[in-house]
Amino acid sequence: MKILVVNPVVGDQWTEQDRAYLQGVVDPGTEVEVVGLTKGPRSIETFYDEAHAAPDILRVIREKEGEVSAIVVNCFADPAVDAAREITDKPVLGPASTSMSIALHLGAKFSVISILPNTAACVEQQAVKLGLERRLASAIGIDVPVLELEKDPAKTVEAIVRAACTAVERDGAEVIILGCTGMATLAAEVRKKLDVPVIEPAATTVKVAEALVKLGLHHHRGRSYLSPSFDKIVGYDWL
Amino acid sequence: MKILVVNPVVGDQWTEQDRAYLQGVVDPGTEVEVVGLTKGPRSIETFYDEAHAAPDILRVIREKEGEVSAIVVNCFADPAVDAAREITDKPVLGPASTSMSIALHLGAKFSVISILPNTAACVEQQAVKLGLERRLASAIGIDVPVLELEKDPAKTVEAIVRAACTAVERDGAEVIILGCTGMATLAAEVRKKLDVPVIEPAATTVKVAEALVKLGLHHHRGRSYLSPSFDKIVGYDWL
Amino acid sequence: MKILVVNPVVGDQWTEQDRAYLQGVVDPGTEVEVVGLTKGPRSIETFYDEAHAAPDILRVIREKEGEVSAIVVNCFADPAVDAAREITDKPVLGPASTSMSIALHLGAKFSVISILPNTAACVEQQAVKLGLERRLASAIGIDVPVLELEKDPAKTVEAIVRAACTAVERDGAEVIILGCTGMATLAAEVRKKLDVPVIEPAATTVKVAEALVKLGLHHHRGRSYLSPSFDKIVGYDWL
Amino acid sequence: MKILVVNPVVGDQWTEQDRAYLQGVVDPGTEVEVVGLTKGPRSIETFYDEAHAAPDILRVIREKEGEVSAIVVNCFADPAVDAAREITDKPVLGPASTSMSIALHLGAKFSVISILPNTAACVEQQAVKLGLERRLASAIGIDVPVLELEKDPAKTVEAIVRAACTAVERDGAEVIILGCTGMATLAAEVRKKLDVPVIEPAATTVKVAEALVKLGLHHHRGRSYLSPSFDKIVGYDWL
Amino acid sequence: MKILVVNPVVGDQWTEQDRAYLQGVVDPGTEVEVVGLTKGPRSIETFYDEAHAAPDILRVIREKEGEVSAIVVNCFADPAVDAAREITDKPVLGPASTSMSIALHLGAKFSVISILPNTAACVEQQAVKLGLERRLASAIGIDVPVLELEKDPAKTVEAIVRAACTAVERDGAEVIILGCTGMATLAAEVRKKLDVPVIEPAATTVKVAEALVKLGLHHHRGRSYLSPSFDKIVGYDWL
Amino acid sequence: MKILVVNPVVGDQWTEQDRAYLQGVVDPGTEVEVVGLTKGPRSIETFYDEAHAAPDILRVIREKEGEVSAIVVNCFADPAVDAAREITDKPVLGPASTSMSIALHLGAKFSVISILPNTAACVEQQAVKLGLERRLASAIGIDVPVLELEKDPAKTVEAIVRAACTAVERDGAEVIILGCTGMATLAAEVRKKLDVPVIEPAATTVKVAEALVKLGLHHHRGRSYLSPSFDKIVGYDWL
Fold this sequence. Notes:
Chain A is of the alpha/beta class.
């Protein structure tokens, strides 16, 4: 089994680190391939970034989907996941959706600790889209941009833990979801300091992908997800 | 006042027709400018199409937003509306959102008559995103692709009316929304055959845009809508 | 086009002020006529007040609806709006409903700043009725009765701004709705002190009314709204 | 204990019949007083009717509330119930609210069988207001106006039973609520022909009123329900 | 009329006290019989306790249901109420459900004051099950275990009142529900110190039971509630 | 890794069949142990059955939880799952919850095909408890009791397929969940005849259990899930 992980940003700096991390998470028989973009944003923090990541995410998936068993778009915004399901019969998963669905089994309410202070509205929108808004206790941003998360890891961990404690005590969260796949390397430290379950979305999504493959499950095309006409698209010759 | 209407598809065949139609809808002092895309899909029927329309929609808006008072993205999928709000302080409106919000004042429940038989899931998702799912009676597709809507207008009108009657009688709709801006030219005929209000989304959106401009209202950036860093985007030199 | 604005209170002190204000908001070709009640409350702050305003609101609308294009009941309680839709085919709009529907296009959540400290329950009930409760961040009362709003405008503005800041910072509001049409003259001052959009409901409702008229849209009678039998009403000879 | 039942219509033809029926429902120590209106509609079928019933309902309650222990407004539209709670500290109950609340204990979903074919929207609105829309299976009208319900009782019973069977089989109802207090005399016949529980709203409301009195429970004024200023009301000298 | 009250705990210490209290609540013609368990928990504070109470609750009900008119399971967890409805055609009521349904008539939102600090999640789950979550303002635990509630009544009352004030002022509650039937003897004291209605669930449930009996209402078996095959149960020879 | 699968029924006839089936689903390094009950129902079809299964499910889990990595209660009613989470720190999963959470990634709406015609209310209650009711298209029963599912497999498969087609065509389901773990052996046949994804809950739950173990995730005790006092339970000496 091979799982394609699309890092929906331009740049190779995380490719090998993410591959090694996720390879350590999957079963022995599973291979993880991590691919970045050549056109798109350097990080995804806005709807605008997301819109410019989508075409190249879809290009990568079109190129690779024949060789893999499942596809993960490795960003908590779940960018282009719906569109990707229209061009492949392999399962396509996004970290926000899988994390929130797994959180259902761990406690009554979950909170998401995000990077930017303004993420509450976006995370709530994701929960609403999933149909899970009643299970969302809160979304709290720690005000550290994606590209600075790993600059001072101890400080970032401390900010995450502080926000998580607020979520638990003030908002009644029983589960914490790290709201950025760039927090993966910090998860172990965060877990040591909290006594509620902490979901790291990248690893969680890869494990759900493996489970779906082994169960033989994938989405159906014909209703929410159609099969697009590629020749209707003009001007994307780099695709 | 000038309203920019972005037709989020490649091709000029509708530009003048849409301009003339919408110019007839606005107040005497308002000018309508309709602009199509140079890169993107020929029509929007899938998430994949939508993903490939977004970058060029945003390019057009960046180029034009300084000269206009409000912006309409003229497709019922409301493509790139959230992202567009991040790059301008002018009001940005999508036809699905404005039509559904206006329908609230016309009856207890509305139905959307769409082009494809599979649209129920997508329209329901739009209503959920707006927070209006309880007001949606149903979404019914008539199985006529966008590019064929005007081939046999009488037949298309008949299909719309038949679906609308089902919505009214079976689903309790008191308002009908035409679920594609390509149905604009057919709205007058449809209205003659139904005794419930029929919302034509393109005209409705332009009028709501005018109202917002005159009321001095536009979205705020800093929470749901941030200001993106343009220099973080790589490889879109055609933008 | 002529829009009938019913001030659902007894007394003429606001008639001319409101007319001048709203005449300044509409398009050149639109005339605004403001009419008060001869029987009813001096202001609407309770359900009891509202119940005693309704018959005379409906009398005014019956008398005038033939001569006008649309009707606005100018009070944030939206009094008698449903009943009015049963006696006319002209659009009938209430300020709470129109303001909340317009707020959908300006940000993820809106808050309403009302006059009395106890309004949260009533505003939430209005949002629930519209089907929009998920978009309501909060309702906050400033504890200034209707008839005292304009006594010390600077103080009222300050109270509104303070409540709005709480709504934005504590409750996540991205849009502020002034929850009383008597706050219209204060809106400009409030806007200067806030950087989120501020919806003044009276002006907003009149503009939505104009848009509906120009779009040829009005509610249908036969389902939610029936046509009452006037001769079934006994003892209202003053009607 | 004395319970005031306000028949919110003009005319005495039901007063004694209702009194005898409800006196047979209450406990030995409870007295039922039924009072009609002198100004208002002959029956309530529209929002317009309801608006013209409210002032005289409130007049009766103001006159009588000192002498009674609880108040029932005897119409499924629950007219003026909120306003009535502002002028008395005695419990005030409406038949739709009490019937729906009691239905919660009898099965997963309830349906309401109403008089007019168009009632679905109104009953759904009542359920939404109560916060119970998820428990409502359907509302079905039988197309017999209030004043004709008792003309051919066997035919009315048959129509109610037919609609109830549809509610049970098609919509999954496990409880039937008769959606008009004018159906009280028919309830026994309806029950014989159905094997799901049938709630007759007038009797149910009087029993809930008795229970509230014996439990010493009534609403609080100061938040949803304020105390109105009676001298703010102009022109209702007949009140 | 005889009402069976099952105290779903092992031990007789409350039987006579509860019987005397509830006998004082019912009508003269009603007899209250209180029965405890012989197998089960000494108090119900966890799902585990509840699971071990259920078989003996059902045994008691099977033994007694022929002789009584209605059944109350006297614990705010409403343990085994659904299962009990499968083995009798007499009404079966749980205190949480009846209290929440009665609260609907007393104010816009209710809060539940529970025994343990962790009850918010469980009470919210109960409200969700009833379909009433929108009416729940909050659930607050006072951190006094069931078996210690009556040790220092004045202190317990003070803790309940303090929590209730928080519910009213911070969360907007207009009705307080005591979230444990063991608080019954304290209700009178609590009421003296609060000016919002306070629902004591045991008394409320018994009164609703009486009302259902007098109205001839009980649940139907065949859909949510089936009739179990007793001979399919193995090993419960003590039943 | 060892996963404990509790078959919550008395009798050994499925133990080996289930073990072999689930052992074929897990990863090479995982062992599946299947344990039945000694006291309880022969099958679970009612709330009454469920109540009599719970104590022995909990006994088995207390006895075994020290030796295993995760626990699955192998019945679509998810019996005793909440209580089980109070007595172990190992993940405890129920098939309905896991199936519904996995369905979120496969299409907009799912339907559940159950054994009995009356299951709609119960399945909807499960979806409501999870917070997923908006994603449930329908629940349809095929009227074949658990103990007869495998008597005529071809006929059962046909009934499931017929119900699934109704769910897809009439109710808009894009995913089918088999609503009984006793349908596991039929899943392959059902899948051949449907072109939407079919979730077999037993296998799905075991795979989610494996994923949780590998991710190091389990619920927290202290809020929804407490730690019960075992010595408070009286009379269950067989435990």
